[in-house]
What we know:
11 strands, elongated
Amino acid sequence: MHCFFKSLVLAACCTLLCQGLIAQDTSFNSKHAAIYFPYPMYKEHWRSSIGFTLMTTPEDITEEVRLRIPCGDYHLLTKINNHFILDSRLLFQVLQNHVSTGIHYVRPINENVYISAGNDIGFWFGFLKLSGFNSKAMGWIDYPNVSVGYKTKKDLLITFKAQVSVNLYYQAANGAVKYSSSQRYYNGETFTLALEQAFYNKKHLTLAFSAISNKFFWQTWALFYKTNREIFYPQVTVGFIL
C-alpha cells in the first residue's frame, strides 16, 4: 500500500513539472480566498488563516474514554513565484505542538481544475507534568502530498488532498528513562476533503474533513508511541481566512 502512495505522489510531481504549455489563469483573483485550494498566487504575496482542528481518539485504543482534542491551527502561504508556494502551518495545544513547512508546486489544468504536489517537513514536541509523571517527547515527520481542486460556477472551492507520512525521528523521556529512534518507517495516509467559500462580509471560511490512518499520530504521543497497525483518526478543521 505504501509503495502505491509513494508512486502516486512521485508521478504527480513529474506530471506537474513537465506541463509547460498550460495557460495561466490570471483571472483567479483575491475574491477566491483559500488555503487548501491549489491555485497560483499571481497577485498576492501571502495569505493566512486562523482556526482549530478537532480530533477524536480511537475507541479501540482508549476504550471507554473518548477524548475530543481541540488544537489551534495557524496556516500561512507565502508566494515564491507564480507556481511555487511555501506552505507553513502551526498546530498548537500548549502542552503539545506541531510546526511544518514545505514547498508546493501549483498550476491550473483548465479554468476549473487545479492541481499541486509538494513535500512538507514537520517537527512536533510535547511535555506532560503531573504528580509522579514527568514526560516529554519530540520528533520529525515527512509529508509528501498531492491536491486536486475544483472551482464551481458559484465560487465554491472543493479540494481533495492525499498525503502520506514517514516518521524520521522520535525521542521521548519519562523522568530519567530516555528513548530515541532514528529508524524511518512508513506511517500511514491522510485523505482530506476541504470546502472553501465566502460566508460573511467578504470573509472566507475553510471547512475540512480528514481521515487519518497512522501507526503513530503526534497528538497521542502521551498515550503510546506507535502500534503495529494503522489506526483511524477522524478530524475536522475550521479556518477563518485572514
